Automatic annotation (TrEMBL), chain A:
It is a multi-pass membrane protein. It is found in: Cell membrane. Keywords: Amino-acid transport, Cell membrane, Membrane, Transmembrane, Transmembrane helix, Transport. One of its GO terms (molecular function) is transmembrane transporter activity. GO terms for cellular component: plasma membrane. GO terms for biological process: amino acid transport. Belongs to the binding-protein-dependent transport system permease family. LivHM subfamily. This is Branched-chain amino acid ABC transporter, permease protein. PANTHER family: ABC TRANSPORTER ATP-BINDING PROTEIN (PTHR11795:SF442), BRANCHED-CHAIN AMINO ACID TRANSPORT SYSTEM PERMEASE PROTEIN LIVH (PTHR11795). It holds the Pfam family BPD_transp_2.
UniProtKB/TrEMBL annotation, chain B:
Keywords: ATP-binding, Nucleotide-binding, Transport. The lineage of its organism: Bacteria, Pseudomonadati, Pseudomonadota, Alphaproteobacteria, Rhodobacterales. One of its GO terms (cellular component) is plasma membrane. PANTHER family: CONSERVED COMPONENT OF ABC TRANSPORTER FOR NATURAL AMINO ACIDS (PTHR45772:SF9), CONSERVED COMPONENT OF ABC TRANSPORTER FOR NATURAL AMINO ACIDS-RELATED (PTHR45772). PROSITE patterns: ABC_TRANSPORTER_2. One of its GO terms (molecular function) is ATP binding. This is Branched-chain amino acid ABC transporter, ATP-binding protein. It comes from Oceanicola granulosus (strain ATCC BAA-861 / DSM 15982 / KCTC 12143 / HTCC2516). The keyword Nucleotide-binding applies. Pfam families: ABC_tran (PF00005), BCA_ABC_TP_C (PF12399). Residues 4-249 form the ABC transporter domain.
Length: 343, 252, 426
């Protein structure tokens, strides 16, 4: 029983990342009708916003510390971050420690900008082209973005720790009456899960309760008619692309303490996220979220030892296997609408 | 006994009764028109005939064989060809290739792995296709991309693609929809000519009364998914039930 | 050549001449000049040209003709490689059984994957093939490489031939490397043209010594390359036949309008499946040849990035055209090699004629795009092609040709060119 709960929890954080990326993918697909293979790259850019922010925050200058000497007996030079100068030592240290959450402030404008530039500069010209062309051009874009990041930040993963306060683990088992240390769960993963639930909730609330969201939902259902009503749907769709980019970017920012960001993380997640979207049902937002968590958790369960003993390697292939089965039995995915992408 | 016998066909879409107890008999070598106001179920009926939709109940017999449950390509192989409301052609292929494909379908059936032969060597089929193109006056356009043809030419090409198969039944779905008067008249002449020349059974679904009365030998009037009357054109013209169904649609 | 039109025969002849003389054509720069690094005529690279050419020709039969975009074709390449290495392990180093088995196994594999994936079209088809390929990759990487169960792939290490393998057909005198009835794949004869005398060995020859002073050219004629090249010419010929056949016409009809095809009495499913299997067998052949040149097979060959590469090649060259995929494969493999060799030192030597400030500026500007940044260049190039030249390099060539043609006969040719454009390209 404790193992089951543990795997369930372990599946949540991966599921959260899948759900967030798939949500953005579905927003873009549902509103713009574009299959965006560069969406994983947006996730990656988000993660590197966190890297950049933590580097910016720890920018420092050297001062001579008279109280200490180095091994030659000379006064030692120490690096003092600028934030220490500005906010005092204690606050400065705190700010550096909280670099990842603070990066959200950087990531939102950056991702919005990246999203809008991408849509206006490139995607816009592909609305009327076949889906294969959309896949191809965004695939090319993903390669370009990934290579740029590789050149700027290098090929190695860059560890980006969570704030000190979240580095421990929560002993979940004790709370449920199990022995201590049977079910421990890192705080940050809990934070990630809570964060993604909030983001998902916010996106749904935004679409449900604002006029903007209503227009967008109407546009998802029938773009032409909404256009005929004299509503400038294009401008809203551009903003939707920005929003989807922000969702992917934030997912990336907060994911950095779980997995050190590297230049190919976008592609790694993209393939799985596409599977998630298709399983959930192309164009269905609740489907994307549900399938994201479902597959994340399923993958986590499949990696339990006793299951791997029965079916070796099942953890590696479970997602694809489920995707194939679902596509064949329910062609529109779990919650898909009729007539989407059926040429 | 007609070549096409539709008996007691019903089709529901959710709460909507699209077709209710439709009976229809199309005689061999005749031109039979199905008319009716918008939403009368004409297109649904047609889709049931070609395998795109499967009726909830009833039977559709073509030449003594049931077409129900068969796929569109199997029904075509039985001898039913269909002309669409907006011409469906192979836009990326040349006009000649467009006509060659049905020739191959007729000779080789639904699938044949002829990967090592060349199209250029199929003299017989090429002659057949070229002949057909001459018949519809498109011989000089045979090298053009079908997608670059004018709308009227696309329509004629689609007809040629159907006729070259020598179907036993040709289904036409509003062949003059959206056409100018002159084009409509041309199409009527074309259809008349085809009927005279090829001795073909035609079933036309049409909105335009002009077309129907100048072509059809028998007319079925459909309203709200059920046939109101079936009779010769002269008697349909003044029929009170038809007037009632078409109230507001002035042309009758 | 019966039944092929003259222009197709011409194309085939040109490709044949280019491939057979590739060791000379690809080494235009003297071996002791500074430009020698742009020579591409070394055996390893030439083998890759033709092997990826085969892969792309096959992919084009599926994608170019039917429009079904598979993102999982590398799986067939990988399966082909594994089968070939197994033949080396079990039977011996002759490449004939290896290549045969790789084609057959890849064919069977693609029947299964194709039968299931082709039940869907569009993006769903792409995702299904992607899922199958990733699954095959995961299986090859972990499950089937597990010594505790059945070890088909040798996991991370990759499958290779060990001295302890049975190799039942391995004769006492047969060479211990991959060979074609004794002809070793790695055997290379060097022809040296010009230059001063050198110590020759084996089949090496020296022509016109001293004719060009110190300058000399070196051409490598490699047995493995010619085996691959001949096979590529055969499958290229077959692909021309398919393009010109009624079958090929039906495949183009599938891409153009499936609805009409259905109502014309044709069943698209077996046509697409046949195309899928043929292209899978091409990929298997490429994989088998890869293993025949270097008897190793690793799971990374099946990863989706490898599938993406063949997509890039086909699109870049020109999907749906005969020669496009070959051009694309050559182009990408050539620049991958050459670009990645250009480092800052080379750049500095290029711009040495400029004032130092300008020189450094140019080097800094170009630096991200060369050397390790080759993928960046490739990505940008690929995007530009998809945006501006959907027909790839072939369309680019046609446009240039048309432009030149128009200029020459500005008066009379206009109408003719117009008519030519309206005719279908292939």
């Amino acid at each position: 029983m404790d193992a089951v709960i543990l795997q369930f929890l372990n599946g949540l954080d991966k599921g959260s990342a899948y759900a967030l990326i798939a949500l953005g993918l579905t927003l873009i697909f549902g509103t713009l009708g574009v299959v965006n293979f560069a969406h994983g790259a947006l996730f990656m850019i988000g993660a590197f916003c966190a890297v950049t922010m933590s580097r910016l925050l720890s920018l420092s200058h050297q001062v001579v510390d008279e109280t200490r000497t180095d091994f030659l007996g000379n006064p030692m030079k120490v690096d003092v971050p600028y934030v220490n100068d500005w906010f005092g030592e204690a606050t400065g240290a705190l700010i550096i420690d909280w670099a990842v959450p603070i990066s959200i402030l950087l990531a939102i404008p950056v991702m919005l900008l990246v999203g809008i530039v991408m849509e206006r500069g490139l995607i816009k010209h592909f609305y009327k082209r076949p889906h294969a062309d959309q896949i191809l051009v965004t695939f090319g874009l993903a390669i370009v973005l990934q290579e740029i990041i590789k050149q700027v930040y290098g090929a190695n993963p860059i560890p980006t720790p969570a704030p000190e306060a979240f580095r421990g683990s929560l002993d979940f088992g004790v709370m449920l009456g199990f022995d201590p240390y049977t079910i421990t769960y890192p705080y940050w993963r809990l934070v990630y899960f809570a964060f993604s639930v909030i983001i998902i909730g916010a996106v749904f609330a935004f679409l449900q309760f604002t006029t903007f969201g209503m227009v967008v939902r109407a546009g998802m259902a029938d773009r032409e008619t909404v256009g005929l009503l004299g509503i400038d749907i294009d401008r809203r769709f551009t903003l939707m692309f920005g929003l989807a980019a922000i969702v992917a970017g934030l997912a990336g920012v907060m994911y950095t303490p779980i997995n050190s960001p590297n230049y190919h993380m976008g592609m790694d997640f993209l393939v799985l996220s596409f599977v998630v979207v298709v399983v959930g049902g192309m164009g269905s937002l609740p489907g994307a979220v549900a399938a994201g968590f479902l597959l994340g958790i399923l993958q986590s369960f499949a990696s339990m030892n006793w299951i791997k003993d029965i079916i070796p390697g099942i953890d590696q292939i479970i997602i694809y296997l489920v995707a194939i089965l679902i596509l064949l039995t329910r062609p529109r995915g779990l919650l898909g609408r009729k007539g989407v992408m059926e040429e | 006994m007609g070549i096409l016998e539709v008996k007691g066909v019903n089709k529901r879409f959710g709460g909507l009764q699209a077709l209710g107890d439709v009976n229809l008999s199309v005689q061999e070598n005749s031109v039979h028109a199905i008319i009716g106001p918008n939403g009368a179920g004409k297109s649904t009926l047609l889709n049931c005939l070609v395998g795109k939709l499967i009726p909830d109940s009833g039977s559709v017999m073509f030449d003594g064989q049931s077409v129900l449950g068969r796929k569109p390509h199997e029904i075509n192989q039985m001898g039913i060809s269909r002309v669409f409301q907006t011409p469906e052609i192979f836009a990326d292929l040349s006009v000649l290739e467009n006509v060659l494909i049905p020739c191959f379908a007729r000779r080789d059936g639904a699938f044949r792995m002829h990967a090592y032969e060349t199209v250029a060597n199929e003299r017989e089929l090429r002659d057949m296709a070229l002949h057909m193109l001459e018949d519809v006056n498109m011989h000089d356009k045979r090298r053009m991309l079908a997608g670059s043809l004018s709308r009227g030419d696309k329509r004629r090409l689609e007809m040629a693609m159907c006729l070259v198969q020598s179907p036993r039944l040709l289904l036409l779905d509003e062949p003059t929809a959206g056409m100018a008067r002159a084009d409509t008249n041309n199409t009527i002449d074309l259809l008349k000519e085809i009927h005279a020349k090829h001795d073909i059974t035609m079933c036309i679904i049409e909105h335009d009364m002009n077309v129907v009365f100048s072509l059809a030998q028998r007319i079925t009037v459909l309203a709200q998914g059920t046939p109101l009357v079936e009779d010769v054109p002269d008697r349909i013209k003044g029929h009170p039930k038809v007037r009632e169904a078409y109230l507001g649609e002035a042309q009758v | 050549m019966r039944g092929l039109e003259r222009r197709d025969v011409m194309l085939l002849v040109i490709v044949a001449v280019m491939t057979l003389f590739a060791p000379i054509i690809l080494n235009p720069f003297p071996a002791n000049s500074a430009m020698a690094q742009f020579n591409a005529g070394y055996p390893d690279l030439m083998q890759r040209f033709v092997i990826f050419g085969i892969f792309a020709i096959g992919f084009n039969i599926l994608f170019g003709l039917t429009g079904y975009l598979s993102f999982g074709h590398a799986a067939f390449l990988g399966v082909g490689s594994y089968s070939a290495v197994w033949m080396f392990k079990l039977l011996g180093f002759n490449i004939i059984p290896a290549i045969l088995l790789s084609v057959v196994v890849a064919g069977l594999f693609s029947v299964v994957i194709g039968y299931i994936s082709l039940r869907r079209s569009g993006i769903y088809f792409s995702i299904l093939t992607l899922a199958f390929a990733q699954m095959s990759f995961a299986l090859a990487y972990s499950v089937l490489g597990n010594p505790a169960l059945i070890n088909l792939t040798n996991g991370e290490t990759g499958l290779q031939v060990y001295p302890s393998d049975p190799q039942v057909l391995h004769g006492a005198s047969a060479p211990n490397v991959t060979n074609l009835f004794g002809l070793e794949m790695r055997q290379t004869c060097e022809v040296k043209l010009g230059g001063t005398a050198s110590g020759l060995s084996g089949c090496d020859t020296h022509m016109l010594p001293g004719a060009f002073g110190e300058t000399f050219w070196a051409f490598d004629f490699n047995a493995g390359y010619y085996v691959c090249a001949v096979l590529m010419l055969i499958v290229f010929y077959l692909s021309i036949r398919i393009f010109r056949s009624p079958f090929g016409m039906m495949l183009r009809a599938v891409k153009s309008n499936q609805q009409r095809l259905n109502y014309t009495g044709l069943n698209p499913r077996p046509y697409t499946l046949a195309a899928f299997v043929i292209s899978g067998m091409y990929a298997g052949l490429a994989g088998g040849l890869m293993a025949s040149m270097d008897p190793l097979a690793g799971a990374e060959r099946m990863q989706w990035t490898a599938s993406g590469e063949v997509v890039l090649m086909t699109i870049l060259g020109g999907a749906g055209t005969l020669i496009g995929p070959v051009l694309g494969a050559g182009f990408i493999k050539y620049f991958e090699n050459i670009f990645s060799k250009i480092n800052d030192g080379v750049l500095h030597s290029w711009f040495a004629f400029m004032p130092e400030g300008l020189e450094n500026l140019f080097v800094t500007l170009l630096h991200p795009f060369v050397g390790k940044g080759w993928h960046l260049t490739l990505g940008i190039l690929f995007m530009l092609v998809v945006i501006f030249l959907p027909g790839g390099l072939v369309e680019g060539g046609q446009r240039i040709g048309r432009f030149a043609f128009r200029r020459r006969n500005r008066k009379g040719g206009e109408a003719e060119a117009e008519a030519a454009r309206k005719q279908p390209a292939e």
